[in-house]
Amino acid sequence: RWTEGSSDALPALANELARNRVDLILAWATPATLAAKRATPSIPIVFFGVSDPVGSGLVASLARPGGNVTGVTNIAKDLTARQVQMLAQIAPGLRRLAIMGNPTNVSTDAQQAEAEAAARALGVTPLIVSVREPDRIVPALADAVGQGADGLVVLPDPTFLTRRKEIADMALERRLPSIYARREAVQAGGLVAYGASLSNQIGRATAYAERILKGARPAELPVEQPTKLELVINLKTAK
Question: What pLDDT is stored for residue 191 in this prediction?
């Protein structure tokens, strides 16, 4: 089930899967995982691409999740400040930083707060760019540029990964140095990415799904955290 980047359809899709009594739900990112958890207290749910599973109420703790949910976190909240610092090193003249997030994603608030604090600590003015729907990405970025944005941090969200080329093209056209959490955004033309590999998270999550389908209980499988982070640079965009 795929929403093409919009979160509005997630509850209905999750309820449909629950009614179909599937054996397991594999969920990408916090909004999809929350929708799945609300839809069923019994079907096992394995997530990946989730920033703060404890803070968002998905699990009781990383070591002992409890309930029917476990998976792989991307620790994105803990990396947001470092992304801002990296961008300031790359673009030492940075003065006004656009921070783009999806307010329908409950992980965004904490990540946005980290980015704002890191920007202000560097003497940089944060400009919050809130985008709920994919079609609003380009107009929202254009508005930020109109307000003087000279750098861009894109907080992780399926909406933005789905439209990664549009974001990269817009940043390149406006000569905005940009940083992301995912390699895929840089492959689409973004400048820099720093974070946990999405493909590695998927691999670990599917390994958990296999164990659960063979009899393991989600409540007893600790939430995994990444052991390796990627720094990816698009040299063509840099030039």
Answer: 97
Number of residues in the chain: 239
The pTM for the full model equals 0.84
Give the tokens for residue 202.
């998927």
C-alpha 176/C-alpha 188 separation (Å) is 15
Rounded to whole angstroms, the Cα distance separating 95 from 167 reads 20
**Four-CA torsion 42, 48, 50, 52, nearest 10 degrees:** 70
Mean pLDDT of the chain: 93
Task: Tell me the pLDDT band of 80, cut-offs 50, 70 and 90.
Answer: very high
Can you spell out the DSSP letters for 20-48?
A: TT-S-EEEEHHHHHHHHHHH-SSS-EEEE
What are the helix (H) ranges across the chain?
10-19, 29-39, 76-90, 108-121, 137-146, 158-162, 164-173, 183-187, 198-213, 235-238
Per-residue b/e over 198-221, b at no fewer than 16 CB within 10 Å? bebbeebbeebbeebeeeeebeeb
Greatest pairwise CA separation for the chain in angstroms: 55
Look at the block and give the residue holding tokens 């970025």: 141
CA dist., res. 49 & res. 39, Å (int) = 19
| 231 confidence band (pLDDT: 50, 70, 90) | very high
190-210 tens-digit pLDDT? 999 999 998 999 999 999 999
Q: Which residue has the tokens 């409540």?
A: 219
Q: How far is CA 194 from CA 24, 37, 106, 180, 231, in A?
A: 31, 29, 21, 6, 5
